[in-house]
Amino acid sequence: MGGSVALDGSRSMRSTTTPPVFAVEQALALLQPARRPAVPHVEDGYLDLLGEDDPTGAHPGQRLMLSSTLALIYERLWRPLGGRLLMGATGPGMREEQRMALSMLDLAGNDRVLDVACGPGNFTRGFARATGEGLVVGIDASKTMLAVAVRKTESANLAYVRGDACALPFRDGSFDAICCFAALYLIQEPMRALDEIARVLAPGGRVALLSSCNRGPLPASATDPVVRALTGVRIFARDELTRALRDRGLRSIEQRVAGLAQFVSASKRP
Q1: Which candidate, 134, 187, 153, places its Cα nearest to that of 46?
Q2: How far is CA 174 from CA 26, 115, 200, in A?
Q3: 201 beta partners
Q4: Which of 87, 95, 152, 176 is spaced 20 to 30 Å from 75 by Cα?
Q5: What is the reported pTM?
Q6: Distance between CA atoms of residues 144 and 106, nearest Å
Q7: In which order are the strands placed within the sheet that holds 201-212?
Q8: 89: which residues sit within 8 A by CB, 6+ positions away?
Q9: DSSP reduced 3-state for 73
């Protein structure tokens, strides 16, 4: 496709994939005024707010998320295999994880949902189906992951944004539900990401997290520095995320540990 009509009616954008225009307009309306671009860049079907910036991180596990090859095999091979390694043979599979995420978020048909570090959209698409009259936004820093997500998405209520999980571009209280599955342990500053998640969550909103969990005789203070230095993956102590959510004013916190993983849900006071 050549030059395409911009969201403001001009012909200043170029796009190779046409995004759901109404969903992108809704996502733009949720941005903080200072973060809203004068001319939205919707290259390859997602709203790019980073340009040449790359907040991914320098460790091998973090850089791998930018690989075009990984983006192609992520949903069918990499992510299921990673789940088995993390949670063990008896842990929940991908379909069960998706059911758990939907249950933890308790979505309604008109909810606004944010999928943080959405990757190729393997969970984001399910949220869009569950909120037909609402809005779902998937945000990720990886161009290659978002390119795959756009190709696999047909829902008119779903928009993708390229942005930084540690500096979410949205206004306070923008979303009724926020998911961050299998990503927080790779985010460069996970506690800043939790600050941002709590900030953009609306009163009464729900959060669902899936991340690493330290198990075994050694404390996280011993295992985390070694694992993180080699791979970029952070190993959270068993009570680290639940305590962090509580410190940020969330309540009704529930945790389920499966192998070396933890599922954590919480809600914000109305």
Answers
A1: 153
A2: 11, 13, 5
A3: 175
A4: 176
A5: 0.90
A6: 30
A7: 47-48, 158-162, 135-140, 112-116, 175-181, 201-212, 261-268, 250-258
A8: none
A9: helix
Phi then psi for residue 63, to 5 deg, are -65, -30
Q: How far apart are CA 137 and CA 25, in angstroms?
A: 11
The 3-state secondary structure of 111-128 reads CEEEEECCCCCCCHHHHH
Per-residue pLDDT tens over the stretch 6-56: 444 333 333 445 668 889 999 999 999 999 999 999 978 999 999 999 999
pLDDT tens-digit readout, 164-196: 999 999 999 999 999 999 999 999 999 999 999
Q: What angle do CA 12, 128, 161 make, to 5 degrees?
A: 35
242 is written with which tokens?
Answer: 């639940």
Task: Report how far residue 148's alpha carbon sits from residue 199's, in angstroms, rounded to the nearest whole number.
Answer: 29
